[in-house]
């Protein structure tokens, strides 16, 4: 067999799965911000959040993937869907879904993406040589829990307080005054 | 292994989508959804840097990501409550029509 002048890289299964997840997540997140129908946007958001959970699995952060599905897909997406249905009358607006700065913002977002994507390749990241994880997934979760009650004990308490205050405030705000 | 740059590029793309949505959409709920996308992109970066960094015993990357998820949950609850309160009093969720403070 003659040597090819350019070596075409054949993706490993891990890389192939990453490409599929990345494409699905990108398309879904693009649809979230371009769809006219807000309800379809919310459905695409669910898809994008699932895709991000898949990225976490590929990065071997399984606990985070589960937390992502529980909190984002389970709670936040449901909450957003409820809010869309409560403000139903304007869900299918005849007016434009974008404001008058749309094209300026679009070019700016494109510029940000090109800038960051170009920068990513040029920065010499301090990537470790040996990428295997020490210990299994279970010990990682144990370590994570241990970190939360030792190093990050105060932030954890503050987050709990913040969630409590935010949820009580949300109930107060959304409540009918009568 | 997938190179670190692939994850960072994916995160940059999702962040740009969210940036566009947060600034260009008129509907307040659509804007909140775009903010969620931006937070998720940042989380991908945090976890990718943890996974590829030289010191994986330090779980700061994952811990930060979990804190970001918790703050996002609080943010979306308050944000949607505000949207519903505004909808009740002004009958609109379009951000350019909410101009009570404009004078």
From TrEMBL, chain B:
* Annotated localization: Cell membrane; Membrane
Which residues does UniProt assign to the signal peptide?
none
**Enzyme class at the top of the EC tree:** translocase
Q: Which domain of life is it from?
A: Bacteria
User: What keywords sit in the KW lines?
Assistant: Cell membrane, Membrane, NAD, Oxidoreductase, Quinone, Translocase, Transmembrane, Transmembrane helix, Transport, Ubiquinone
Which Pfam families did the record assign?
A: Oxidored_q2 (PF00420)
Q: What is its EC number?
A: 7.1.1.-
| Keyword Transmembrane assigned | yes
Can you cite a GO biological process for this protein? ATP synthesis coupled electron transport
Q: Which InterPro entries match?
A: NADH_UbQ_OxRdtase_chain4L/K (IPR001133), NUOK/Mnh_C1-like (IPR039428)
One GO term of the cellular component aspect? plasma membrane
State the annotated membrane topology for this chain.
Multi-pass membrane protein
Record carries keyword Transmembrane: yes
Would you identify the family this protein belongs to, as annotated? Answer: Belongs to the complex I subunit 4L family.
Q: What does this protein do?
A: NDH-1 shuttles electrons from NADH, via FMN and iron-sulfur (Fe-S) centers, to quinones in the respiratory chain. The immediate electron acceptor for the enzyme in this species is believed to be ubiquinone. Couples the redox reaction to proton translocation (for every two electrons transferred, four hydrogen ions are translocated across the cytoplasmic membrane), and thus conserves the redox energy in a proton gradient.
Complexes and interactors: NDH-1 is composed of 14 different subunits. Subunits NuoA, H, J, K, L, M, N constitute the membrane sector of the complex.
Q: What is this protein called?
A: NADH-quinone oxidoreductase subunit K
What is the scientific name of the source organism?
Caldilineaceae bacterium SB0662_bin_9
State which gene encodes it. Answer: nuoK
């Amino acid at each position: 067999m003659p040597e090819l002048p350019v070596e075409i890289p054949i993706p490993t299964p891990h890389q192939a799965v990453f490409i599929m997840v990345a494409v699905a997540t990108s398309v879904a997140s693009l649809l979230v911000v371009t769809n006219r129908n807000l309800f379809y946007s919310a459905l695409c958001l669910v898809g994008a959040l699932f895709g991000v959970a898949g990225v976490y699995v590929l990065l071997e952060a399984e606990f985070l993937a589960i937390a992502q599905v529980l909190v984002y897909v389970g709670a936040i997406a449901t909450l957003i869907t409820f809010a869309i249905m409560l403000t139903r009358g304007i869900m299918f607006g005849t007016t434009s879904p974008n404001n008058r700065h749309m094209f300026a913002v679009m070019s700016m977002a494109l510029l940000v993406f090109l800038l960051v994507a170009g920068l990513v390749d040029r920065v010499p990241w301090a990537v470790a040589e040996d990428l295997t994880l020490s210990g299994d997934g279970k010990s990682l979760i144990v370590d994570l829990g241990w970190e939360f009650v030792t190093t990050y004990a105060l932030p954890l308490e503050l987050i709990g307080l913040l969630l409590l205050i935010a949820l009580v405030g949300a109930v107060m705000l959304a409540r009918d005054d009568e | 292994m997938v190179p670190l740059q692939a994850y960072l590029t994916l995160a940059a793309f999702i962040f740009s989508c969210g940036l566009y949505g947060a600034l260009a959409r008129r509907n307040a709920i659509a804007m909140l959804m775009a903010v969620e996308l931006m937070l998720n992109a940042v989380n991908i970066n945090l976890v990718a840097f943890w996974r590829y960094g030289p010191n994986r015993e330090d779980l700061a990357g994952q811990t930060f990501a979990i804190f970001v998820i918790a703050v996002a949950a609080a943010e979306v609850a308050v944000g949607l409550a505000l949207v519903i309160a505004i909808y009740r009093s002004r009958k609109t969720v379009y951000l350019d029509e909410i101009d009570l403070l404009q004078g």
